């Protein structure tokens, strides 16, 4: 329910992963969306669903999952 920029997502993931490399920016590509945000009100109304995990926590859980999955193979 909170709009988050790609730059902020990179910042969070980089911090969680211990990456010190700054993001590399390039000109946008033709057809690339400048902004995207989801409206969860229908899921809330129909399913009773509400986001319960802050984005940094969810990204941390996702990163741990992939680290564990890749290391098991």
Description:
It is a single chain. It is built from three helices and no strands. The protein has 73 residues and is mainly α. Helix 1 (6-17) crosses helix 3 (55-72). The mean pLDDT is 91.
Brief descriptors of the model:
single chain; 3 helices; 51% helix; extended; 0% strand; mainly alpha
Mean pLDDT: 91
Cα radius of gyration in angstroms: 16 Å
Please indicate the percent range of residues in DSSP E strands (runs of 2 or more). Answer: under 5%
Series of H and E elements? HHH
- What is the molecular shape? extended
Low-confidence spans: none
How many runs of DSSP E, i.e. beta strands?
0
Structure annotation, total helices: 3
- As a percent range, the share of helical residues equals 40-55%
Sheet with the most strands? none
* Distance from first to last alpha carbon: 35 Å
């Amino acid at each position: 329910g909170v709009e988050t920029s790609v730059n902020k997502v990179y910042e969070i993931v980089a911090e969680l992963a211990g990456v010190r490399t700054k993001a590399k920016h390039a000109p946008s590509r033709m057809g690339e969306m400048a902004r995207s945000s989801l409206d969860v009100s229908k899921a809330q109304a129909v399913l009773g669903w509400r986001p319960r995990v802050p984005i940094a926590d969810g990204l941390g859980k996702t990163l741990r999952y992939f680290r564990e999955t890749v290391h098991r193979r």
